[in-house]
Design brief:
The complex is a heterodimer of chains A (179) and B (448).
Chain A: H1 26-41, E1 46-48, E2 58-61, E3 71-89, E4 99-112, E5 118-124, H2 125-138, H3 149-165, H4 170-174
Antiparallel strand pairs in A: 1-2, 2-3, 3-4, 4-5
Chain B: H1 8-22, H2 26-34, H3 42-54, H4 56-66, H5 76-91, H6 96-109, H7 115-138, H8 141-145, H9 149-158, H10 163-170, E1 176-180, H11 187-196, E2 201-203, E3 210-213, E4 230-232, H12 235-244, E5 251-254, H13 261-269, E6 275-280, H14 286-296, E7 301-304, E8 319-325, H15 340-343, H16 346-363, E9 367-377, H17 386-395, E10 399-402, E11 414-415, E12 420-422, E13 436-443
Parallel strand pairs in B: 5-6, 5-8, 6-7, 8-9
Antiparallel strand pairs in B: 1-3, 1-4, 2-3, 9-13, 10-13, 11-12, 12-13
Helix pairs in contact in B: 1-2, 1-3, 1-5, 3-5, 4-5, 4-7, 5-6, 5-7, 6-7, 9-10, 12-13, 13-14
The chains are: A alpha+beta (179), B alpha/beta (448).
Bound molecules: S-adenosylmethionine.
Chain lengths: 179, 448
Amino acid sequence: MAKLEILHFPDPRLRTRALPVPVVDAAIRQLIDDMFETMYAAPGIGLAATQIDFHQRLLVVDVSEEKDQPLVFINPEILLRDGVEEMEEGCLSVPGIYDKVQRAERIKVRALDRDGQTFELEADGLLAVCIQHEIDHLDGKLFVDYLSNLKRQRIRKKLEKARRQGEPDPVAEHGETAL
Amino acid sequence: MPAETVSARTLAAKAVQQVVQEGRSLSQCLPALLAQAAPIDRSLTQELAYGVLRWHARLQQQLQQLLSHPLKAKDQDIGCLLLVGLYQLIHTAIPPHAAVHATVEAVRATGKRWAVPLANAVLRAYQRRQTELEARADAQPTSRYAHPDWLIEMLRADWPQDWQAILTANNERPPFVLRVNTRQGEVASYRAALQAEGMQNTTLSVAEQALRLDQPVAVERLPGFADGAVSVQDAAAQLAAQLLDVHAGMRVLDACAAPGGKTSHILERSPELAELVAVEIDPARVPRIEQNLQRLGLSAQIIIGDASRPDSWWDGRQFERILLDAPCSATGVIRRHPDIKSLRRTADLEDLTVTQSDLLDAMWPLLAPGGMLLYATCSVLRRENEQQIERFLQRHPDAQEAELRVAWVVDWGRQVSHGRQILPGAAGGDMDMDGFYYASLIKRCEDS
Ligand SMILES: C[S@@+](CC[C@H](N)C(=O)[O-])C[C@H]1O[C@@H](n2cnc3c(N)ncnc32)[C@H](O)[C@@H]1O
């Protein structure tokens, strides 16, 4: 397995609209494994293929506390939406930024699983929010698009500055001196 | 979407609590805590944890004065959060209202609602009474220097001229020093590679492969790091491989090897060794040696074993060079590991000095006549250093001290009664190295 690199806002590749996965084969399953590894390491609860620069309709999710309920959605479609909910969201492609976004409270989704079998699932709460957030990625959309222009500009500047400065490394900063 | 993360203040306070209450080291407990932080909060978490432990004795004294009665043992989580709050007010550029707000929120997140007004009151009272509280902290050595009393006393006894400079240096931030792997390229070309990335750096006259970066960076951003072009190691530690003076064809023993910093430096400098044997007692630390060697493209014979009992692993062939980088109080590297001040006890010192002399005695028979044993510690206490060598020389008439020369610099560190002592940071002069001690022992040939 391999950890993949996550694209960061304002990378234009995050704006790509993904195409359907044509066949669920061994290569896709390998990619799914790598996406889970990347997501858990981040640490995250959802990751869309777009975020790792692979532009087919595929996403992985695990909102469980124990990190033991991995879910895969291939070519997902939202069949039903119901209610309105506002939740604070963040995004692995927009590190450190959190803001409130409104989404449907409950959804019904149809997708293929990792064996290429069709399944349907009803979700609410965090799971529903997370699936909607990840499907947005497949359409080239980010949660910051729901915020005001001004806020988005500020976020862009903040992230660009953070990137230039880099993040000092825990071990390196204090040196490798064994006791 | 990111997983729900824990705030930097909460995580830093947890790290402090694990160190101070449970006696765990920062390097043991911090990685798991950092994994719960949002990536953007990791460096802040770390800065707060290191900072609070650096100033712990002082902050603790100030906190006591701000509380009308001491916190209960079960409320030490609140106590640690308050220390994190005070640290931000005193030592960081975080605007005071933001420091107070974030800390109070972290207190609220513990679920102890009674502590929310307390946290507000304590942090605001500090702001009001800052001048008075700082003056009071300066009035007592423990809080002034933020070191335990016994250590201040020991340093004062050992270094009557320098103890204050040592204590001050221990509270400074350490420099970020690299070691260029000269098997892959020259120091000058790596310098240029760094400069091309905008990473300003300087060479150091004593340590031949060392470059000091002006600004610390994540190691992954160092050119060629993953491919072994460079390692992170203080200049004082880099002197070991130079002093060991290894030549082609020699058999070399590194008796206390993990995590392999000096093992790999010896190999980088001397490609044509007959053999390098690296011994390490702690199996949990051995993978670190392997990872370091692998990244640097080097290999050594690694043995998990007790260097003080060579019978169980030694094949009977003597070594021309032995590096004994002994376990020690680490009092020379407090600026890199401020948790040492909370973890170390006087009783440890007694055990350590016994271990050190056992190791010296056990290694001596493994040294070939005419060969050199280099004794090293990252301690500044005489009992672990020159006094240890003094007693060793009395026990072993066939041992003789040799001059310690590095590069073309004759005068580095300080000549002490036996060996050379480097004092940390500015206490040791303008080379700004970690506190370290070296002594070189030569085994006389029978007929001389
Ligand atoms: C100061 S550190 C060595 C640092 C290492 N030389 C480097 O430069 O990376 C001391 C090491 O000695 C190990 N050690 C302690 N007692 C030992 C013994 N009796 N035999 C072998 N190793 C021992 C410790 O586990 C620790 O890893």
